[in-house]
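ok trying again, last paste got cut off:
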Amino acid sequence: SGARLGPMSRYERELVYIRVAKGIGFVVFTIIVALPFYVMVMTSLKSQQTLLANPLDLSIDFSQGLDGLLRSYVELFTQFDFGRYLLVSAYVSVATVVLTLLFSVPGAYAVSRLRFPGQAFLARSVLLIYMVPAIVLVIPLYAVFSQLGLRNTLTGLLVVYPATTIPVALYMLQGYFRGLPSELEEAGLMDGLSRVGVILKITLPLSLPALASVSLYVFMIAWNEFLFAFMFLDDPDIFTLSRGVVSLNSSEVPRQHLMAGAVIATVPVLVIFLWFERFLVQGLTAGSVKG
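nice, full thing came through this time. structure:
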């Protein structure tokens, strides 16, 4: 669009190059993201006989009827107790969001508003934990949790998950809090509100976009987390969804059930992400431009 066949200026040529590169990038990105999801969905809708006859056939056989297409999903909930996995993952993810906000909101407020020794260092170093790979942390945590009786319990996950999500929540919230007018909080203090009252009645209501984006981000991390759940959980009754999907990866379980489990694990968080995308964008860009 906007290109012409005749001689073009340097600006026009650069504009055409950028548009072509952008279009190619969109196509490649769409293929990389959409193709695996398409294969996953198509495989989950097939029968075992069809997969064995032609594993590369990704078309849909509508002659099976709706019951035949969704047979793998029905069997997951009736034979593999996937409903329990969904409830456990929902419980762990929501609890992680609540615990993360309980610690990160006062921490981010303190870093952004209060003055104390080491404030600048703390504000810049909250993300240092992500320099340590999770696989390095899981081995000592496994040993400690085994001695404390926290392994193979959801309590152990609710200790680890907030510890990994609080730093990024602190980083996101402190930038947003710095962008809020401090005069509003000073007026609240002059009207007799305590510092906690200022946070609850002034700061938090003004920070709903940031809180929503942080909650969504933390929920996605807890919902999709696999390594700690795989290492710490052995009881199928408390498997999270990601751990439950891995339990299907065996020679005794047909491949279409594994793909159906992967679809069930992907779709809820995908729907939530698309629904709250505007809050996520607002929260990620909050505090980047002052005023």
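cool. The two ends are 36 Å apart (CA to CA). The CA atoms of residues 29 and 86 lie 30 Å apart.
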